[in-house]
Write a structure and sequence with these properties.
199 residues; alpha/beta; globular; single chain; 44% helix; 9 helices; 21% strand; thrh gene product, domain 2; Rossmann fold
């Protein structure tokens, strides 16, 4: 029994923090898990910047409302879901992901939760589980699934390498160079063909 585990941002939708960086005019917020392997460090740094600028959940959600899936992403996902079960495993948060899931046809997503004050200030975040992507893949394997995983960032490498087949999709030159054993794709058609070959 196969199950495909996909990252969300950079694979199916644009990077939320990059979009918010542009919308807010705060260039520092362009930093993502493609740049910083330590997710806790990255998120705490982001929350500090939001606090400094007096920005909260509403401002980010207003930006998210303008984001559409990457061109071809929904069609790719629809075709993949006709072939096998798919779970999106993301380090984003339910408060960010929900509107994007509607645009993708409501696939299953496992992600995290923001802690938000009544004022709308994001005061913290709750990770679902430590090393959420790798831990989820291992949990799926423990109940009899063979996983196929793909993503674009440092925080995807654990689940990709632990799976029976793993791929990079639209990753950075550095990550591709550092992981020459992982097939890397830029187009959904080639990516889908590779997944089909692994099923």
């Amino acid at each position: 029994m196969n199950i495909v585990c996909l990252d969300l941002e950079g694979v199916l939708v644009p990077e939320i923090w990059i979009a918010f960086s542009k919308a807010s005019g705060i260039p520092e917020l362009k930093r993502t898990t493609r740049d910083e392997p330590d997710y806790d460090k990255l998120m705490n740094w982001r929350l500090g910047i939001l606090k400094e600028h007096g920005l909260g959940l509403k401002e980010i959600q207003d930006t998210i409302a303008t984001i559409d899936p990457l061109p071809g992403a929904k069609e790719f996902l629809d075709e993949l879901r006709e072939l096998t079960q798919v779970i999106i495993i993301s380090d984003t948060f339910t408060q960010f992901a929900s509107p994007l899931m509607k645009k993708l046809g409501m696939p299953t997503i496992f992600c995290n939760e923001l802690v938000v004050a009544d004022s709308g200030e994001i005061t913290g975040f709750k990770m679902r589980i430590e090393n959420s992507k790798l831990s989820t893949v291992k949990a799926l394997q423990s109940i009899g699934y063979e996983t196929i995983a793909a993503g674009d960032s440092y925080n995807d490498l654990g689940m990709i390498k632990a799976s029976k087949a793993g791929f990079l999709f639209r990753s950075t030159e550095q990550i591709i160079k550092d992981n020459p054993d992982l097939p890397a794709f830029e187009e959904y058609k080639d990516f889908l063909d590779a997944i089909k070959g692994a099923l």
